[in-house]
Write a structure and sequence with these properties.
Chain B: Keywords: ATP-binding, Cell membrane, Membrane, Nucleotide-binding, Repeat, Sugar transport, Translocase, Transport. The complex is a heterodimer of chains A (310) and B (506). Chain A is mainly alpha-helical. Helix content of chain A is 72%, strand content 0%. Chain A has a single domain, classed as Orthogonal Bundle (ABC transporter involved in vitamin B12 uptake, BtuC). The N and C termini of chain A lie far apart (69 Å). The chains are: A mainly alpha (310), B alpha/beta (506).
Chain lengths: 310, 506
């Protein structure tokens, strides 16, 4: 056994990279759920983003274009869900599950020709002096743009929900869609916009997985990341800050257990592989144990079908 | 007198029903105008068209001499029309200020809005704290939020849909003072209610709707409440008659009942004690959200309490669930018809099976006796004059009054020793309400102990022998209903809470 093989600086640096796909998907789903829609298709949208982004980046040689297309792909897929649930009023749970199954199959189909291909890398911004700070520079200032974008997005979503009128209307729609309708807000339109935003975030997260984190394409490569993102949103009591905490915790434990496996620690591999899921859920359950307060933050109309009676 | 709003030939049809059929009336500036009618007469549809929520099929409206075609509520608000909804259009998890901002076209920044809310609520004697969560407010306070939301926009026309159904008599008096003040300032008020005495004290004119048509227009002060009721219903109503027998021994005794609410915005029950005798009706009044649902849960067995807190003829039954309580003849009919008292998408036969299986022997060794259940459902339908094609129809397809008659009848016919009903006539038309009240009186006359939880004080005064008030989860000591004045009842219900009479400069 050699714990010396685990370098804390490298570990901390790779934590941020490992967490970014889940963080992106979760922050998007947070907005969707705050508008009162439960989209269980995060996994499907992520993997669709992963392959669409990968394919476009390989074909055009531009990772930036790949990321943009992944966002468009995720949003397009989510709008299928949006139209089915918001306009045709289908069941959100069943439709979301179908979306995940569809995304997995669809990505496997497109991805057949891309197995084993290496994608072009996204250039990292040179943060100059900042990156030269010992330890901290390596941990915080040596990443690619998407990592910083995901952090900015968390702050932006928090500020949007808390301080802007549009954010207030979004929360109102998720809290009581009948009352929002009675006041003249366009419930369906607002929810479709939220769903598309969530889809774009999930698509971006998936593309980050296939283009930056791994980087290559394998079938089913999201491996439940979308489901973890969903769980994180709920256990984080629909708060942006806690979503960040949950995602980084998951990413951190995932990286740590890989290092432990490599170091040959005498713990069954199965248990190590399961540890990120276990640790994240246990910690978030403990945080959200106060049921009364968690219920206050939960969008009261979550998952309910809205039918304008008048 | 110049007309502020004129409505001519307004028509709106929904599949199978004409909600409004060539409705026409006008409201003058500074007038308090009543819109009277039973449930389903088309009042709600009419005001929704004025507020831009529903587009009329035909007809036109004129506001201050100009054609008025509101495409959305926000267009109506811009034109100076504001509305206080019957079922509050509020968001529980948002603060008072956020709720008010959502109902305004161009709200000022939050801090200035909070100051404005304080200022306006002071002026009109409707105190509000802008940063409190609406979910934690009482029904009266919630209504203040709705009213302040309207007042902040300086409306020309204020529509109020049944605003007093959740207020204590004292709160009603203060609300009326505020409304008169507003009318004196030139705001027209369209006031919807079916409380006739209130309309007679408050309103200058009344338009009466029946089945989507305007049937009469009158000055309500010149008519008696009975005359107004006849215009609304179209026939004479007979008041329920009571036999007035002597109550027997104590059947149900509740002592020191406390129950924390399962709902984060619910009210916990605190140390409730009362007893009911055989053949007696105990009326429990109170403004919604003061623990009514929790009390029903504790009495029906949906929420288990300490065994000794509820006793049936001395035997502790507090820990029993709904099934075992039915077995000992303690039955309940909850408030929400669709979803709590009945399963909306199941047939009447299935709904009969759900509560009567134990007492009527509709199930044996795990198998269901459908013919017996159907026969029982038919018996309820026949005995309570439920208008439906047959017991195979889904509960959802019945009108509110008919379903309520079925739900109450289903329990009454199971020969209960104790029957607990919550809001037995809520949203039910006048004739069905009269039938339900009569059946409760008859049931008590046959020796059952009946507990009626209701917000309708007139109803409680009409049928109960003793009256108790539920306020913030506590129950006042029951008093004989006869001779209680509205004033005394209001004080039992917690008085005016902290409302004050509007102190606008004269």
């Amino acid at each position: 056994m050699d714990f010396g093989a685990i370098n804390p600086t490298v570990l901390a640096a790779s934590l941020m990279v490992a967490s970014t796909p889940i963080l992106l998907a979760a922050i998007g789903e947070l907005v969707v759920e705050k508008s009162g829609v439960l989209n269980l298709g995060v996994e499907g949208m992520m993997i669709t983003g992963a392959i669409v982004g990968f394919a476009i980046a390989v074909e055009t040689g531009s990772p930036a274009l790949g990321f943009l297309t992944a966002m468009a792909g995720g949003a397009a897929l989510s709008l299928i869900f949006g139209v089915l649930t918001q306009v045709l009023m289908s069941n959100q749970v069943a439709t979301g599950l179908a979306l995940t199954l569809f995304g997995l199959g669809f990505s496997a189909l497109i991805g057949q020709g891309y197995v084993g291909v290496k994608p072009p890398a996204l250039a990292k911004p040179d943060l100059g002096l900042l990156a030269d700070i010992p330890v901290l520079g390596r941990v915080l200032f040596s990443h690619d743009l998407i990592v910083y974008l995901s952090l900015a997005l968390v702050v932006a979503v928090w500020a949007f929900l808390r301080f802007t009128r549009a954010g207030l209307i979004l929360r109102a729609v998720g809290e009581n869609h009948d009352a929002a309708h009675a006041l003249g807000y366009k419930v369906v339109r607002i929810r479709l916009a939220a769903i598309a935003f969530g889809g774009a975030c999930a698509g971006l997260g998936g593309a980050y997985l296939s283009l930056m984190r791994v980087p290559q394409w394998t079938e089913g490569m999201t491996a439940g990341a979308g489901w973890i993102a969903l769980a994180i949103v709920v256990f984080a009591s629909w708060r942006a800050g806690r979503v960040l905490l949950g995602a980084y915790l998951f990413g951190g434990v995932a990286v740590l257990q890989l290092n432990l496996q490599a170091a040959g620690v005498a713990v069954p591999v199965e248990l190590l592989s399961a540890s990120p899921y276990l640790v994240t859920i246990i910690v978030l359950v403990i945080i959200s144990a106060d049921r009364g307060r968690a219920a206050l933050n939960a969008p009261a109309s979550l998952g309910r079908v809205f039918h304008a009676s008048s | 007198m110049t007309a502020l709003l004129t409505v001519e030939g307004l028509t709106k049809a929904y599949p199978g029903v004409i909600a409004n059929d060539h409705v026409g009336f006008d409201i003058a500036q500074g007038e308090v105008h009543a819109l009277l009618g039973e449930n389903g007469a088309g009042k709600s549809t009419l005001v929704k068209m004025i507020y831009g929520l529903v587009q009329p099929d035909a007809g036109r409206m004129t506001l201050r001499g100009k054609p008025y075609v509101p495409a959305s509520p926000s267009a109506a608000r811009k034109a100076g029309v504001a509305m206080v909804f019957q079922h509050f259009s509020l968001f529980d998890a948002l603060s008072v200020a956020e709720n008010i901002a959502l109902g305004m076209e161009t709200p000022p920044p939050m801090r200035r809005l909070a100051a404005r809310i304080r200022e306006v609520s002071e002026t009109y004697g409707l105190p509000l704290t802008p940063d409190r969560l609406v979910g934690g407010l009482s029904a009266g306070e919630r209504q203040r939020v709705e009213i302040i939301r309207c007042l902040l926009q300086d409306p020309r026309l204020l529509i109020m849909d049944e605003p007093t159904s959740v207020l204590t008599p004292q709160e009603v008096a203060i609300l009326f003072a505020t409304l008169r003040k507003l009318a004196a300032e030139g705001t027209a008020i369209l006031y919807i209610s079916h409380k006739l005495e209130e309309i007679r004290t408050l309103c200058d004119r009344a338009t009466i709707l029946r089945r989507g048509r305007v049937v009469e227009s009158c000055n309500p002060r010149e008519k008696s409440a009975a005359q107004l009721a006849e215009m609304m219903v179209g026939t004479k109503l007979t008041a329920p008659s009571r036999a007035g027998g002597n109550p027997g021994g104590v059947v149900l005794e509740v002592s020191g009942l406390s129950l924390p609410s399962a709902n984060p915005f619910g009210t916990s029950l605190r140390d409730i004690s009362f007893s009911v005798r055989a053949g007696e009706i105990l009326g429990i009044g109170g403004v919604a959200g003061n623990g009514q649902d929790e009390l029903l849960d504790a009495l029906s067995g949906e929420a288990a309490v300490t065994p000794g807190a509820v006793r049936l003829r001395g035997r502790p039954i507090g820990a029993l669930g709904p099934g075992p309580r039915r077995r000992v003849a303690v039955l309940a009919a909850p408030e929400e018809r669709l979803g709590h008292a009945a399963a909306p998408d199941m047939s009447l036969t299935e709904n009969a099976m759900l509560t009567a299986a134990i007492r009527e022997g509709l199930a044996a060794r795990g198998f269901l006796k459908w013919p017996a259940a159907k026969a029982f459902a038919e018996k309820v339908i026949a005995a309570f004059d439920v208008r439906t094609p047959g017991p195979g129809n889904a509960a959802r397809s019945l009108s509110g009054g008919n379903l309520q008659k079925f739900v109450i009848g289903r329990e009454v016919l199971q020969r209960p020793e104790v029957l607990v009903v919550n809001q037995p006539t809520w949203g039910v038309d006048a004739s069905a309400a009269a039938a339900i009240r009569q059946s409760l009186l008859d049931l008590a006359a046959s020796g059952t102990a009946v507990i009626v939880i209701s917000q309708d004080l007139d109803e409680l005064m009409e049928i109960s022998d003793r009256f108790a008030a539920l306020n913030e989860g506590r129950l006042s000591p029951p008093r004989p209903a006869q001779g209680l004045t509205l004033e005394e009842i209001g004080l039992m219900l917690g008085g005016a809470h902290d409302m004050e009479v509007a102190h606008v400069a004269e």
